[in-house]
Each structure stands twice: as structure tokens, then as C-alpha cells.
């Protein structure tokens, strides 16, 4: 004989049981592979990897595309995070659009680095841009990203994209063209790293500036810009550009997968116009095909504002990047992006 | 016989050797104790603890003050980070000053929670504020912080501070006073946590609002507000207040030790005035004794701007916190701050 | 003009500088990918992965071969460590040779599981063994290991090896042969895991024992057997076999990559002979082609001895694995080895 | 009206629900503080700390007693694990009893280091031992352990214990006594660490040996002795003693909290007698008051056997510890035990 029990359940109890079952199930699937970013010597940003999707290698570095728990698909170069599916739009909209929106009529763009294709993708959203040169040193990375990062497939096949496999410095030195906007989508300056010289005053002055058209704008990623990290390289890159260009505009935004607020700097020898939020939104609407997800007039205003603490450091910074005097970061997100 | 070798050193080489020696030495002192915040199920924020400074306990929780590597002294309640020496000014300036600066003439402030004393410290910087009531449930935490957190010593001994050990809800219900500004320096809403009900519409409507003077402002911490985390509770707290007060102003700032952008919301039944940057700076100068390190007019402008992605979520949010319908965060920074 | 400095170096100083340089260089190459084994809920065994070598997948599980820092190449199934290049000889010599050496003249061996090939490799070292049946459920794992684990290539191509892709239980039930030695190279009993029933008394009694020749020996891996872990399943598997076979011999050895001492149990209905160290060494010399690296007469003596603490638990154990009453481990090394 | 639902539960389902509830509850209490032992550069042994019990400091080091998840109470010196409640009996029975049991009639024992008191506790279990000198350099550690480690309280108050606060080398040099057994319960040899010279041939020859009575035995802890770690220092300490004493006996056992098999070496100028298991058990029964939990005749046999792989290394080792030629371990369990 089987027992029958009469029970009264509250809906609340049933929900509780279900949530417990879910919680336990999820718990059992916990990760074994973890990606660990050593942000500083005793600060780690650690996230679970649920699947290795693709692996590759070039003469310069290893290449991996992995499925992470918190950030979606993540591209790793030499085991370092390059960009994450769920928030790469923050970094890439930020590095591309402010300069292109401030420029009165940008037609040509040169990207130093940027092999994964996302920076080019954003630049190509500007219908007025006729030509984007993307100059990355690593053919294999470019091929890998073209094959596996579907979100950039359209950009890679655009007739307006000119892909060059070369060292950015060498390419700029030898090319005969000038550009409206040059974008430094580079590795952070690392001690002994390949990108250090692309942040020096002599590079900006002698190699890069001659390749900007009249009214041209340089924008470069400039490392971590958080309350506790902006003194590492950000203030120095800012000051180096301030000593090299007439007009310099720093800005920043928090990028979750980088575990920090990130910084960029625009520089030009022509004054940046005062653009109101409404004008920014108007330009976005008129120039850009496709939707932006992070940036609009109000957001740009916030990015440019920074905060009192960081401004104070920027204002007082005296260090200039030269070949003999660099500053280096410990090991942040964009750390080993390979580009000489 | 001893060999003598003649060697030419470049200064560069000598510097290299010294930096190597330093690097190696520092390496040998690596941490053994680590604090691990499980930001999400597979995302960890981990930092080294070099020294346990003080330990204590109350009937509610354990209390520890530790020396961390990246964030200076860190206060832990029940093993959860409460605030960190090196960036607590971002959180505490942000939770206090916007509301007090927007108010035309704030004289009385009620703080729900805030036992560590930093929120009171900031409020007391306003020379026009005649009375700050700080209502925390845990006598031991308050005593511990008064004894060990020297940066708040002056605040704790201010004659303008009235310290109440009580549950914030009970205290508000029973007190006969009204206040110009009420600050919710509370634990995040956690499933089963003590603070959940202090974020509900009925609490705001029935308990809190009656204790605001005419023109009074409520400001509450509102959980993580980053690109990837603002849907957890921030948008919901915003919408709950929007359905309860006539005017609501959300804002946010990146707090490094919390590993995220953090959110706050101001709410009032009287319109917030349009204040220009210059006016903000003027009010800071005239009302506040002592210097602010994070906030000025421009910074406040940036905090209020948020970004397109977060605004879109806020605009579309329909969830309201009620006793039967909560939303909860996984385990962020302010997680277990004890306050019923 | 260049300065010249005359310096006297001690050899000691030069060595110091070189070791510092090495230390620093090595330091800069630190790992970003880490494998984390949750040995218990709050105990983790974590090691660096320097390279993903090969990735694959079957209908049952994901398959990865990675280069680890401390353990050489490591095979992962469903993200769990299966075996590590640098110490797999300890596990595989231990699971195979004691039973084959105690048996008077073993000619046929049946391996439940063992898809990576190492258990077969060890069994095939016995020149008297004419046939080794390896029965693994996962064709893809077998193919992956045959392709990538060169140390087992010879074994995989041996004419004495008969490879069957099937569930071990089903295969034993349906096959008409009997064997001198049956080896359980199985997953640990996990709650909900595929292998649990292959440790039950009814399986041993009804399915397995009928397939042993007269004098035949069963040996099974039996989970962690350390001072703190042997109560999880080891004592229980031991007792289950003790209640099923007339003679039972437990033994154990520390396997570094498993972060614990590991246990095995031999069982037979015929008494195990008293074999002196010298006799063991003699049998090794006469029966085994190729060298053993871990096992000799003295080592076997040590493995069989266990220690007082563990023996006390084994002696007093009363639990028996049945379909309704299992015990499970938290998540050790051999956790998810796929074999039904 | 309230709904009533008639449901049939199987006991199995109810058990499942309860286990899920437990699992989830336990999950919510997960640790925030973790102790991380860097066993090698890319191998970490990490365990949760649920509570800081006591903190202290001396002129030499910090002292902490913490409640760990997997190992019970753990004593940390300078943030390094010294001994763990749940398995310290393995280490301390192993370092003390073999030498005292092999000795025909030990009456006096000198302990180099051993400030926590556990080594003395084990030695005092021998009723024939009339005097135990424990010589530790750190008064504060001794006081801390006497106050907080209740398991050693009886030993600390024994009239047979003579406690000396001094450097072990200096104490041995200056004392006029000789001893039957000298125990080296010392820090591992670390580069730059305080204990290195207490492992050198000249120390053994010139300082220590003259203080041994006729038939006296030295036993020293000798670092990790696992399959992958025994070449770090164990084989070297063994060989150094082999070149200094006529008879040398290495042995080892797995200590879970040390994440490795641990090694000890006995040395004497008088031959170690062949003692059968039964004789060992007889001596334990006759000489020792109180029960041993790890060691008996059979266990001792297993410890002495080691394995083929380690024996091969020991046999071929040629390195000798001298003041100019040390070997060092990376950072294992007994790493910073303070004793000069």
C-alpha cells in the first residue's frame, strides 16, 4: 500500500524549491578553467571560461577565442584579454566616434593596430568615410578574427577597408598619403613591449603628425584612467600629446571586462569646436549608419568631464614619453596587443 | 690572487639591474591571504591582504579591519568589503553631496545605516547642516569604527552628530522629526538579507516620505550601475522611486574597490533645479568646509549623464520593489552591510 | 667622453644578478589561464595552463589536451583532470601491476574505461598477457588520445589490444568470455554521475564476478585515500568488496596532480599469496618488458601498508554501495571520467 | 478560498529537496578570505578561512591562528601555514617517534625550533624521556601557542619540558649537555631564510654531532618528498647527512595540508637495528603513554619504504649542503618557520 500525504503548498514555497533546484544545478556546472588578469601585483580579475572555441598561433603570439561566463566570447592574444563580446562596444565606440564626430568631415582613417576588426567596423559606420586603412602587424590574428568573429564579418569585406600587414610605424613612415583621423588602437606601453615607442613624443611629432591632413585628429587609447590607476600611463600620454599638439582632449569610460575605467586622448593642431549634446546627436544621426549602443551626446559629455581627482593629476603632470623615459602599466586588459 | 675585470656600464644597465633586484625582492613578499569577492558566479575580484589590523564581532556580524595591497585599509563586515581607504571618498562624496547641493538650504540629515561614520563625516562638512542623525543597528560596528578609523574621528565627536542605535525603519516610524535630506547608506537588496524592505515602494511611501520636510530629498545607494550590471537592481530601484516621487535623478560613478560603476538615486516631490557647473562649484565653495577630492561641478555633470545604454534600460524599466517582488544582487561590495 | 668604471665582481655577485634576471624574466611570463580543481568546497588545487594543445568534443563530453606548468601535458575531460604527463605513471602502474603480479599467470585482462590508453599500455607490458580488452564508451576520447598522446601510441597499435566502444556494464553482461584480471579504471562515484552503479555490490556480484576466471582478480580505482579524505568513498568501496569477495586488499599512493593520496582495492575469491619483496622484484623482471618507474617490491610493500588511521576506518566501515545507497566525492581528479 | 493539492511524495524526492536546501544554504556561506600557498610558481593550494581567531606579532614575524574550512584551526607565521589541527598529528608523530623508537632507551631530547609545542608534546609521550629541551628563537610565538593551542597545554606545563628562547645553533654551541635524540623541527632551507645553515654539513659535523650521546640519533624534517618535489631539497639533505653520519634512514608520509608527501631523515653513527613491525608495536605500547593516531609498526614500515622513483634519486644524489652551496624550496608548508 502506498501512502498518500495531503499537503498545502504556498506558491512561495514551490518557487523556493524551484529556485533551490536551479541554484544547485547551476552550482554543479561550475567552471574549472579560469582566466586571471593580474591587474596589479596583488589584485586579480578572474573569470570562468566555459569553453575553448578556437585556437591559433602566429609568429608573434598565440590566439584564442574562448567562451567566458561573465563577458561572452573573449579574444585572447598571448593569453591576454583583447576584447569581450558583451562590452567591446564601449571601448570601440569610444575610440572611434568622438574624433570622427568632432572632425568636420572625415573621409580617411588610419588605424594603427586594430587587427580584430572592431575599430574598423565602427569607423566604417560613418557613411562619409571613404577609406579606412587598418595596419596590423599580425596576418594570423587578422585571419583568425575574420574567420571567427562574425560581428566584424561585414567590416572585413567592405570595399572601403584597406588591410595592410605591416608595422604601423614603418607603414606611416613610408606611405605617401595623409589622413583625416589616425587612431591608435594599440597595446598599452609595457616595459619591453612592442608598442612603447608608438607613445613617444618623437613618434607623434616626426612620424605621425606629418600624416595628418589639415584639421586632422589623432586619437589614441591611453590606458587605465581610474581613480587609482590614471597615474600609471594615462596622465603621461595626455601630457606628451599636450606638449606635441595645440589642442588635446582626454576622456574616459568604465569598461567592465577591463576591470577599470579606460582612457583615450584626442589631439589636433586645430581647435576642437564646442559641440552641444544636440549637435552631437544630430551628427550621429546624419553621419552614422546603424545604431550606437553606448554613445550619444549626453554620454560623450560625461566621458569628457572626467572627475576632479583625475583632472588634478592631468593638470599637474610633467612627464613626457621619450625613447629613454617611459612609463609602463602592470598588466591591464589591452596589455599585449601585438603591434610594433 | 683576485681577478679584476674592467667593465663599462651604461646607466641604463645599472638601472635595469636595480629594477630587477627590486622586482625580485617585491616578488618574494607576495601575499598569502587573499580576499575574494564573488562579483558574479564566475567572476571574482581578488586582492591581497598584507595584515589583519583589528578584529571584532557583534551579535549581527564579524568586523575586521585589514591592510589590503591595492586599496589600503579595508573594513570588512561578515567578511564583505564595506569601504576601502583609497577610494571610499568616491562613494561617500557621491552619496552625500549631490542631494545636499541640490537642496536650497539643508539643515537636517538622517542617515539610514552608515555606521562606519564616513557618510556622517561628509554631511558634517556642510556648515549649514545643524544636525545629522546616524541610525545604525549595530553598536559594535559603530564602536569599532570610532576606535579604529581615524579619518572619521572628528565626525564621531561632532556635537552636531546624533548617534542612534536602532533599526532604521523602526526609528523613522517612531521619531517625530522631519528632515531635509534622508540618506540610504544601506546594504544592497539581497535575497534573505536584512535591507530588502528598505527599498520597497511601501517603505518609501508610508514610512520615509512623511519624514521629509517640504522640499526634502531622499538619496539612496542603488547598487551596481555598470554596463553589464545595472539591470540587477539599479533600474528597479530607480523605477520604484519614479513611481513614488515626482522627481527622480539617477547618477553613477566607477568605484575601483567595488569592481564596478556604482549607482545612486535622488528623489523628491519638488523639482530639482537646473544648476550649472559654475553654480555647483560656487555652492561647494560656500557651503562646504574642507576640500572635496572627487566631486566638483564638472564631475557632477558627468555622474548625472550616465550613458545611452543604461538610460535605455532605466527608461524601459517596469519592475517595482514590493514586499512580494524583490530583485537581488549576487554579492557585490556593499552586500552585507548590516542594517534592517 | 665615455666614463669607464673599474669594478671588482665576486662570482657570487654575478650569479646573483643572473638569477635575478632569470627570476624576473620568468615572472613576466606568468600564466593567465588557470585550471582550478575544487577538491572540497573550500579547498582548491590550482595550476597554470601555458598552452591549449588540442581541443575536441564527443557526444558525452569536451576533450582538451593542455600544457600545464607543474604537471606537463594534462588531459581534461569535461574540464576535469584525467591524467598528467609527469605523474600518470604512479596511477597507472598502481592500478595495473599489483593485480597482475599477484596473479599466478594472467593471460587476459578486461579494462572498464581507460580510454586514454595508459592502463592498456601498462597491462601490455606483461609479456604473458595475450589479450587486453579495453572497453570505453566514448569513441571520440579514444580517437583523440590515440592521435595526440604519443606515449600510448605503441599500445594502441598492439595486436593484443582489443578495443570496444561500449558501456562497460553492457559489454560484460553480453560477452561470453572470462578474464584473469578485470580493471576498473573508472570515474569516481559522483552524485548523478555515470559510474556510480559500477561500484555497487549487485554489479560486483551479478555482472562482474561471473566474468572472472578461477583465481581471477578484480582491481578498481577507489577514490581519494588520504588522511582527511578516505571516508568519502574509499572505505565504502573497500567494505562493499569485502562483503562480496572472500579476499580483499586495499592499497594507496600519493599522486601529486590529484592533490591527494589515491586508493585502489584488489578483490578475489582466491587467497592472495604472501609474496616477499624479492619475489615481487623477480616477477617484475621476468614478466614485464620495459621498466617500471614507480613500482618495485619495496614500493608495493609500502602501498599495501597504508597507515593506522586509515586502517582503523577501513576496519570499522559498515556502509555498502547499493543502487539506493551511494556515497559520493566532491570533485576529485578522476571525477568525470566518462564510462557508464 | 485556499487551494489544496494532493501530492504523493517519494521519500527519495523529499531527501532530494532537503539536500538541495542544504547545498544552497551552505553555498551562501562561501568564504571571502582565502589562504593561498604558492607551492610552485604556477601551482597554488588555496583554502578558505572562515574566521580569524587570534592575531599577534613578535620582532620576527606575525602570528595568526585562523579557522580554515578543510583543515580546522591553522597556525600561520608570517602568513605561512605552520600546522593544521586536522592533520598535524601526521607530521608530529612522524618527526618524533621513529627516532625515539629506534633508540634503545632515549632519556633526553633536544628540539631545534618547535615553538608551537606539538613536537614536545609527542616527545613527552615517551615515559622514559626525562628531559625535553625545546629551543625556539621567538618568545612571542611560544607564548601565543601556549595561550591559544589547547592541545599542547599539558606539554607546555610539563615539569620535564625545559623551554629555551635562543637561536638553536648558539644554544647547542654553548650548552654542556649531550642528548640521546636531537630533532630538527625547522624551517625549510629557503634562499635568504634563517634556517639554511642548520642543514649544512659543517653544522651537522661541528656543532650538532658533538652534542649527541653515544648511540644518539638526529632526526630532521627534510622538506617535500613527493614524486615531483623530492629533488628540491630532500635528496640533498639526505646526501649531506649520508656524508656526515655512518647510518642514515630517510622516510616520508603524505601530509594533506602541506599539499605534498613530506620527508624526514634519521642519522646516527650507530647502526639502526632491524626492528620488525611487532617489535615496533611492542615498543609503542611499552614506552608511549597515550595513543598514536597515525603511526604503528606497519605504518612505519610503509614510511621507510618510500618508492622506486624517489630511491633512485636518493641513491644518485651527490649534492652536499655547505655554506656556499645550498638548495632551496619554492615556498612550501613549513617555509618560514622561524628558527635561526
From TrEMBL, chains A, B, C, D:
Catalysed reaction equations from the record: S-adenosyl 3-(methylsulfanyl)propylamine + spermidine = thermospermine + S-methyl-5'-thioadenosine + H(+)
Residue ranges occupied by any PABS domain in the UniProt entry: 32-269
Enzyme class, spelled out: transferase
First and last residue of the signal peptide: 1-28
Active site: 185
UniProt EC number: 2.5.1.79
This protein's UniProt keywords: Polyamine biosynthesis, Signal, Transferase
Keyword presence, Zinc: no
Family from the record: Belongs to the spermidine/spermine synthase family.
Name by which UniProt lists this protein: thermospermine synthase
Amino acid at each position: 500500500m502506498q501512502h498518500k500525504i495531503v499537503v498545502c503548498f504556498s506558491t512561495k514555497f514551490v518557487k523556493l524549491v524551484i529556485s533551490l533546484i536551479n541554484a544547485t544545478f547551476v552550482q554543479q556546472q561550475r567552471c574549472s578553467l579560469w582566466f586571471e588578469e593580474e591587474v596589479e601585483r596583488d589584485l586579480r580579475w578572474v573569470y570562468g571560461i566555459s569553453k575553448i572555441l578556437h585556437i591559433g598561433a602566429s609568429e608573434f603570439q598565440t590566439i584564442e577565442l574562448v567562451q567566458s561566463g561573465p563577458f561572452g566570447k573573449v579574444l585572447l592574444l598571448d593569453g591576454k584579454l583583447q576584447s569581450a563580446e558583451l562590452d567591446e562596444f564601449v571601448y570601440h565606440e569610444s575610440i572611434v566616434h568622438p574624433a570622427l564626430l568632432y572632425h568636420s568631415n572625415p573621409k580617411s582613417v588610419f588605424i594603427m593596430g586594430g587587427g580584430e576588426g572592431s575599430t574598423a567596423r565602427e569607423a566604417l559606420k560613418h557613411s562619409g568615410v571613404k577609406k579606412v586603412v587598418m595596419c596590423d602587424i599580425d596576418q594570423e590574428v587578422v585571419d583568425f578574427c575574420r574567420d571567427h568573429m562574425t560581428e566584424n564579418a561585414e567590416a572585413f569585406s567592405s570595399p572601403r577597408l584597406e588591410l595592410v600587414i605591416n608595422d604601423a610605424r614603418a607603414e606611416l613612415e613610408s606611405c605617401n598619403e595623409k589622413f583625416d583621423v589616425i587612431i591608435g588602437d594599440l597595446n598599452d606601453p609595457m616595459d619591453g613591449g612592442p608598442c612603447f615607442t608608438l607613445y613617444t613624443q618623437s613618434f607623434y611629432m616626426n612620424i605621425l603628425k606629418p600624416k595628418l591632413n589639415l584639421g586632422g585628429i589623432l586619437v589614441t587609447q591611453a590606458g587605465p584612467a581610474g581613480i587609482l590607476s590614471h597615474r600609471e600611463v594615462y596622465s603621461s600620454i595626455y601630457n606628451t600629446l599636450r606638449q606635441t599638439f595645440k589642442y588635446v582632449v582626454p576622456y574616459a569610460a568604465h569598461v567592465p571586462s577591463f576591470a577599470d575605467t579606460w582612457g583615450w586622448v584626442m589631439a589636433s593642431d586645430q581647435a576642437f569646436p564646442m559641440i552641444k549634446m544636440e549637435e552631437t546627436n544630430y551628427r550621429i544621426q546624419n553621419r552614422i549608419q546603424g545604431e550606437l549602443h553606448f554613445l550619444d551626446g549626453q554620454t560623450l559629455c560625461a566621458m569628457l568631464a572626467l572627475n576632479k581627482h583625475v583632472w588634478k593629476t592631468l593638470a599637474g603632470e610633467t612627464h613626457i614619453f621619450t625613447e629613454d623615459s617611459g612609463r609602463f602599466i602592470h598588466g591591464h586588459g589591452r596589455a599585449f596587443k601585438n603591434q610594433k
